[in-house]
Design a protein that fits this description.
The structure holds 2 protein chains of 2 kinds. Chain A is of the alpha+beta class. Chain A has 4 helices and 9 strands, in the order βββαβββββααβα. Helix content of chain B is 31%, strand content 23%. Chain B has a 7-stranded mixed sheet, sandwiched between helices. In chain B, strands 10-11-12-9-3-13 form a 6-stranded mixed sheet. In chain B, α14 runs parallel beside α15. The chains are: A alpha+beta, B alpha+beta. At the A-B interface, β4 and β6 of A face α2 and β16 of B.
Chain lengths: 124, 882
C-alpha cells in the first residue's frame, strides 16, 4: 500500500495535491481503490461545479457497488480528467496519477491528514 | 450472530489472498487479488476454478425417491437417465419458487439435489415436511464432498490431463460421469453457472478437495470468486434466487414462469401427479403461452417477467433501480452491473477474439410482461433517467468452445436492391464459373467424402433436353399397376426411368427401387413419411401416431443429419409421454472405439426400448454397420421392427468389399447417388418386400410419398445422368470399390506415418470405408480446413464424437472416393499425405505442390472411355449445343 508523502488525505480515502495556495488536484487513495475493487465507471463532476468540503462531488462504480467521492475542499471545479470516463481502471492501476478533478478558488479545507497519520488511520 | 461456515477449501482461499465475505452464512471468497474483471475474463478465455462447496447437497434415495422428487420438484424426474442432470424449481403451493436446484443422477438408485447455500435450511424444512408421506430418505452430504466448478474453454483439456485422457462426460450439457483423476474418484458434471459452453462441476471427497484445486492451479487454471461468478451468470442471463427469482423488489412473490427458463424446468407430465404448486403453475404456463403469442389482454397471472436489459447511456444499472416507460414505472432492475468482454472482429467462422477488453452495462429486469425485445425504457440511476433497451440475450454459446458476447445493435438498414445493367454481371458470372470449374477440376484435390465428380457422359446427359420437362406418373390399380403419365412427350423418360430402376435393383440387391427422390434427404423424408402413414393406415379418423421408438446413430457419434429428429425425422418422431422427449434412442458405441457400434450394448437397448424402427448409417463412417447381428437379434426377440440402412455416404461401396445390406437383413436402403456413387445429385430408395408380403404395402405407400408426396417434377435431366451412372457403377464397381477401400487404408497409414493423428483402429488400418478422420486439435478444425482450402485441398472440418459441435471441431473428415476416380493410387496418396503434413504440421504453403500432383490426374477412370463412346459423346455435345 502506497502513501505518497506530498499528499493530504481524508478519512473518506480521498487525496489532495495542492498545486498553489488555492488550487489542487483530487483523487482516491490506493487503499480506496483496493477496497472498492475493479472500478468500471465514474460519474465525473462538471467544470464550474461548486464543491463543498466533505460533501459528495462525484461517484465511482466498481463491479460490486457505487461509492460517493467526497471533496476534501470547498472550491470550484476547474477541470475534470475525462480520460477516466473511458478508462476508469486507471483509478485502480495508478490511483495517485489518476486525478479526478482540479479544484480552484479553494476557500476551505475539510479534515485532512498527512501521509503518516493516514497510513496509521487505514491500518487501524 | 452465529459463526460463519467454512468450506473444505477455506484455507486455500485465505492463503491466496482472497477477500472473504459472508455469503448465505458461509465465509466465501468474493474475489482474489486478481479481482473480478480479470477473473471474469480468464473464465471466458481460459479456465477458472470456483469453490461451490457451500451449495447445499442432498442425497435422496429409497423405494419412493422418484415419487418424492416428482412431488417436490417442477421437473420430470422420470425423464432423468443415469448420468444426466436436470434443472428444476422447488415450487411452493402458490406457484412461487422456494429455490431453484439441480438434480443429478450419478447412480441408478440415488439422486443428488443441489440447492442454493443461503436457502439450504429453508429448503430442508420444506422437504423434510414433504418427505414424510414417502418411503424415501434425504442425507445432507454438503460437508462430505467438496464441489469445484471448473469453467472455461480450456477446462476440458485441463481435466483430461487428470483423467489420463479419458473422456470426461458425453460432450453435451448436463451429462455426468464417475471416473478417476490420478487415482481419486470424482463425479463430473457438464454443468455450471457461468454460461460457459465448456464447463464442469467436479465433486470429490472432502479430503481430496485441496489436492484437486492445487493440481488444477498447477495446470494453469486460476481461482475466481463469487464476484466473477455473479458477473458471469448475469452475462449468461442465468437467474439468481433472491434477485431474479423468488421475492420481487416490491415484496410480492415472482411467479415461477416469470423466468423463461421455467419452460424447460417445469413439467406437467401425468406421472408427476398433483405435485406441489402444479395448479398455479399450469395457470402460469397458460398465461406464459398467451404472452408469447403477444396476447396481452389478461396479464393478471403473469404481470411481470424477467428479461435481459442493456444500458444505452453511460452508467451502471443496479438491482432495485426503477424502470420507466414514459412516466409509468414498469418494473425494476433485479441484477445489474458492468461486465467486461473481449472484443472481436471478422464475420462468422472467421471471427477472431481480440485481446482488447471493453465493458458493458447489462442487467436482468422484472418488467411488465407486455414489453418486447427492442423496446426502449428508462432506468432511474440515482435520479438520472438513463436509456436502456430490452434485449433477447447478452451472450450466446452455440459456437463453442467460446461463449460469445452479444452486444446490442439496432437492425442495420438493408443495402440497395439489385439494379443496373445486367450484361456485365452475366459476363462476370461466366468468367467466375470457368475459374471455379478449372480450379476444382484441374488444380484442387477434392477430399469431401460426400462429393463426386460425375463422368462427362453423366454431365452431358444431365444437361440434355429432358432436364426442362415434367414427367409425373403414378401406378393405377385399374390398369394392373401400369404407370400412367399425366403429360405427353414422356415416353423416352419413361423408358429411362424403368431402366434406371432395373439397374439400381441389380446394384442394391433388392426387389423394389424408387429413383424419383431428388436427394438422399428426400429419400429419408419419404421413407419416414411412408412408415408413419403405414402405421396409421387402419385408423384415419384420429391424428396419426408418430414413430417411436426409433434407434439411430447419434449425430455426435457420426450419425447422419438426415436421420435425426433435427433432420428428416423431425415431423415423424413421437414424443415419449414419460420422458417428454423425442422417442429416439441411440446406438451405444464401443468404449475403446467410439466410431464403432457396440453390438452387445445395442442388444440391451433394443430389449429395453423395443424400437419399431432401426436406422443404420452415418456420415462420419469408418466401419461396417452390424446389420446382420442386429437383424438376428430382432428376429430372435420376435419384434416387428423395420430395419433401414441409410447408405447416403456408402451407397457406391455396396458389394463384396464393404456390405450387402439386403443380404444382411436390411429391409430398406436409402442413399445419395453422388457421394461414393457415380451419379448426379439425387436420392434413391430400395426396399425388399415381395408382392403378397404384409410390408409390401409399405413399399406402395413409399411410392406415393415420393410422388406426389415429395416431388412433382423429379428433375428429369439427372434421371438420365443417373441411368448412365448406374451403368458405369455396375460395369466398374469391382475395380472401383476395391481401389477406394485400399486407397483409404493406405492414405490413413500414410498420414499416420507423416505424424498426423489418424482416428480409428490401427488393427484394421483405421478405416473400412472411403473415409479417413484426422484429429488436428480441439477447436482448430475450421482453421486448418480453411488453410488447406487456401492451398487447394478441399476437405471438411468435423466434430469428433467427443467434441461439442462444429465450431469446436478438432478433426478433418476426408474421403478418397473422388480422387480415386481421377486415378489416384497408393503412390499419389503417399505424396498427398506428405503435402498435407507440410501444410498442417509445418505451416508450409503447398498450393504449387497440390497443383503439380493434381495436374497428372484429370482424366476420369471407372467410366466408359472407349473411342466409340467418346465420339458418341462428342456428337451428343454437338447436337445438344453444349
Amino acid at each position: 500500500m502506497n502513501f505518497p508523502a506530498e499528499l493530504k488525505y481524508t478519512k473518506d480515502h480521498e487525496w489532495l495535491k495542492m498545486i498553489d495556495d488555492t488550487t489542487g488536484l483530487v483523487g482516491i487513495t490506493d487503499f480506496a481503490q483496493s477496497e472498492l475493487g475493479d472500478l468500471v465507471f465514474i460519474n465525473l463532476p462538471q467544470e464550474g461545479d461548486e464543491v463543498t468540503a466533505e460533501e459528495s462531488f462525484c461517484d465511482v462504480e466498481s463491479v460490486k457497488a457505487v461509492s460517493d467521492v467526497m471533496s476534501p475542499v470547498t472550491g470550484v471545479v476547474a477541470e475534470v480528467n475525462t480520460e477516466l470516463e473511458d478508462e476508469p481502471q486507471k483509478l485502480n492501476e495508478e490511483p495517485y496519477e489518476a486525478w479526478i478533478a482540479k479544484i480552484e478558488n479553494i476557500t476551505a479545507f475539510g479534515d485532512l491528514m498527512d501521509a503518516a497519520d493516514y497510513e496509521a488511520f487505514v491500518q487501524k | 450472530m452465529s459463526e460463519l461456515k467454512r468450506t473444505q477449501l477455506y484455507d486455500i482461499h485465505v492463503a491466496a489472498g482472497a477477500t472473504m465475505v459472508d455469503f448465505g452464512g458461509w465465509e466465501m471468497p468474493i474475489e482474489y487479488p486478481t479481482k473480478i474483471v480479470a477473473e471474469h475474463l480468464y473464465t471466458r478465455h481460459f479456465c477458472s476454478l470456483f469453490d461451490v462447496s457451500h451449495m447445499g447437497r442432498i442425497l435422496v434415495d429409497g423405494p419412493q425417491a422418484v415419487d418424492f422428487l416428482q412431488h417436490v420438484l417442477s421437473s420430470n424426474v422420470n425423464a432423468l437417465d443415469l448420468n444426466q442432470a436436470q434443472y428444476a424449481i422447488i415450487p411452493n403451493e402458490d406457484g412461487g419458487a422456494i429455490d431453484d436446484a439441480y438434480l443429478y443422477r450419478f447412480e441408478e438408485e440415488r439422486y443428488l439435489l443441489v440447492v442454493n447455500a443461503a436457502n439450504t435450511d429453508k429448503d430442508l424444512a420444506h422437504l423434510n415436511e414433504q418427505i414424510k408421506a414417502y418411503d424415501a430418505k434425504m442425507t445432507v452430504i454438503t460437508g462430505d464432498w467438496a464441489a469445484i466448478a471448473v469453467q472455461g474453454p480450456k477446462s476440458k483439456e485441463l481435466l483430461q490431463i487428470l483423467s489420463g485422457g479419458e473422456a470426461l462426460t458425453e460432450p453435451v450439457k448436463n451429462a455426468l460421469n464417475t471416473l478417476k483423476f490420478e487415482g481419486r474418484t470424482v463425479r463430473v458434471a457438464k454443468t455450471g453457472y457461468t454460461g460457459e459452453p465448456i464447463g464442469y462441476e467436479v465433486y470429490i471427497e472432502s479430503a481430496e478437495a485441496a489436492w484437486l484445486w492445487n493440481r488444477l492451479i498447477e495446470l494453469g487454471a486460476k481461482p475466481a470468486g463469487l464476484g466473477a461468478r455473479d458477473t458471469l451468470r448475469l452475462e449468461a442471463g442465468l437467474p439468481l434466487y433472491g434477485h431474479d427469482m423468488g421475492p420481487a423488489p416490491d415484496g410480492s412473490e415472482m411467479p415461477v414462469f416469470a423466468v423463461s427458463l421455467a419452460k424447460f424446468a417445469v413439467s406437467f407430465a401425468p406421472q408427476k401427479g398433483d405435485y406441489v404448486g402444479r395448479k398455479p403453475l399450469e395457470r402460469q404456463y397458460a398465461a406464459f403461452k398467451r404472452i408469447m403469442e403477444r396476447d396481452f389482454s389478461n396479464l393478471d397471472v403473469l404481470p411481470k417477467r424477467i428479461q435481459p436489459i442493456a444500458l444505452l447511456d453511460r452508467g451502471v444499472m443496479r438491482a432495485g433501480m426503477p424502470i420507466y416507460k414514459g412516466d409509468e414505472q414498469v418494473g425494476w432492475v433485479t441484477s445489474g452491473t458492468m461486465v467486461p468482454y473481449y472484443k472481436h472482429e471478422g464475420v462468422g467462422l472467421q471471427t477472431v477474439i481480440l485481446d482488447d477488453v471493453a465493458k458493458r452495462s447489462i442487467g436482468l429486469a422484472y418488467m411488465n410482461s407486455d414489453l418486447l425485445e427492442d423496446d426502449e425504457v428508462a432506468i432511474d440511476v440515482r435520479g438520472r433517467k438513463l436509456k436502456a433497451v430490452v434485449v433477447p440475450y447478452h451472450m450466446r454459446v452455440d459456437a463453442p468452445p467460446f461463449a460469445r458476447p452479444i452486444i446490442y445493435r439496432p437492425d442495420e438498414e438493408e443495402g440497395p436492391a439489385a439494379s443496373g445493367d445486367r450484361k456485365p454481371k452475366a459476363l462476370e458470372l461466366i468468367t467466375k464459373a470457368i475459374d471455379n470449374h478449372q480450379w476444382r477440376q484441374e488444380r484442387a484435390i477434392n477430399l469431401i467424402p460426400s462429393e463426386m465428380t460425375p463422368s462427362r457422359a453423366v454431365r452431358l446427359l444431365c444437361a440434355s433436353d429432358p432436364s426442362f420437362r415434367y414427367a409425373e406418373h403414378k401406378k393405377i390399380k385399374s390398369f394392373y399397376d401400369a404407370d400412367v403419365f399425366y403429360y405427353q412427350g414422356t415416353k423416352f423418360i419413361d423408358e429411362v426411368e424403368q431402366l434406371a430402376v432395373e439397374e439400381m435393383k441389380a446394384f442394391l440387391g433388392c426387389s423394389e427401387v424408387e429413383t424419383r427422390a431428388i436427394s438422399g434427404q428426400m429419400s429419408n423424408t419419404a421413407v419416414f413419411s411412408a412408415l408413419m402413414d403405414w402405421k396409421n393406415r387402419l385408423d384415419r379418423k384420429h391424428d396419426p401416431k408418430r414413430l417411436g421408438y426409433v434407434l439411430n446413430n447419434h449425430i455426435v457419434k457420426g450419425g447422419h443429419l438426415s436421420a435425426q429428429p433435427m433432420g428428416a425425422l423431425h415431423d415423424y418422431i413421437a414424443i415419449d409421454p414419460v420422458t417428454e422427449r423425442q422417442a429416439v434412442v441411440n446406438f451405444p458405441v464401443c468404449k475403446d472405439n467410439i466410431y464403432k457400434i457396440d453390438v452387445e450394448e445395442t442388444k440391451k437397448v433394443i430389449d429395453q426400448y423395443r424400437p419399431e424402427f432401426i436406422i443404420f448409417g452415418k456420415s462420419m463412417v469408418l466401419h461396417k454397420e452390424p446389420v446382420a447381428a442386429i437383424r438376428e437379434f430382432v428376429d430372435d426377440l420376435g419384434l416387428q421392427t423395420t430395419i433401414m440402412y441409410d447408405m447416403a455416404h456408402v451407397l457406391g461401396l455396396i458389394g463384396d468389399y464393404f456390405q450387402k445390406p439386403f443380404q444382411e437383413g436390411a429391409e430398406i436402403v436409402t442413399g445419395s447417388t453422388h457421394k461414393t456413387f457415380f451419379g448426379p445429385q439425387r436420392g434413391v430408395v430400395g426396399m425388399n418386400w415381395k408382392k403378397g408380403e404384409l410390408k409390401y404395402g409399405l413399399w406402395e405407400t413409399l411410392e406415393s410419398r415420393v410422388f406426389p408426396g415429395s416431388v412433382s417434377n423429379h428433375h428429369l435431366g439427372t434421371q438420365l445422368g443417373l441411368l448412365m451412372a448406374a451403368y458405369e457403377m455396375n460395369q466398374f464397381k469391382d475395380e472401383y470399390q476395391k481401389a477406394v477401400i485400399a486407397n483409404a487404408k493406405h492414405f490413413a497409414k500414410a498420414l499416420k506415418a507423416q505424424g498426423l493423428n489418424v482416428a480409428g483402429d490401427p488393427a484394421i488400418d483405421y478405416t473400412e470405408t472411403h473415409q479417413v478422420i484426422v484429429s488436428v486439435g480441439y477447436g482448430t478444425g475450421p482453421e486448418v480446413a480453411e488453410r488447406l482450402e487456401r492451398n487447394s485441398i478441399i476437405c471438411n472440418y468435423q466434430a469428433t464424437p467427443e467434441e461439442e459441435g462444429f465450431t469446436a471441431s478438432g478433426a478433418l473428415r476426408m474421403g478418397v472416393n473422388e480422387m480415386t476416380r481421377f486415378g489416384f493410387g497408393p503412390k499419389e496418396f503417399d505424396r498427398l499425405a506428405e503435402i498435407m503434413a507440410d501444410c498442417i504440421l509445418r505451416g508450409k504453403e503447398v498450393k504449387e505442390d497440390v497443383a503439380a500432383l493434381r495436374a497428372g490426374y484429370t482424366e476420369m477412370k471407372y467410366c466408359f472411355s472407349d473411342a466409340d463412346v467418346v465420339s458418341a459423346l462428342d456428337e451428343l455435345a454437338k447436337k445438344t449445343g453444349i
